[in-house]
Amino acid sequence: MSKQESTDEQMITLIDENGNEQLFKELFTFDSDDWGKSYIFIYPAEQENDDSVDIQAYAIANNQDGDGEDLVPIEDDKEWDMVEEVLNTFLDNDGNFKA
Question: CA-based angle 71:31:8, to the nearest 5?
């Protein structure tokens, strides 16, 4: 999926393979020295005030054109475990984000 930053640095528009756009809010990003990658947690902007949100995680990679970044699905189980562990350190026991 390609990532386009909007005017608000916290907002991201994802464009799927069919050209459909969806607005997401960035929860946070982090770098992993072990995996040599950067990661991002996002959630749909329309869920911002909901009791529960669908948090998604992606690896961040420079796109082939060199003019932006792509969000790449995490497919390796060990890599996913690491990303999930990072997210869990920021969630309380009820699944709420701790600022």
Answer: 55
From CA 78, how far away is CA 91, in angstroms rounded?
20
- State the DSSP code for 79: H
Whether pTM > 0.85 for this model: the answer is no
Longest Cα–Cα distance of the chain, Å, equals: 42
Question: What SS3 class is residue 16?
Answer: coil
List, for residues 11-59, the tens digit of each pLDDT value: 899 888 899 999 999 999 999 999 999 999 999 998 877 778 889 999 9
**The 3-state secondary structure of 56-74, one letter per residue:** EEEEEEECCCCCCEEEECC
For residue 96, the 8-state DSSP code is: P
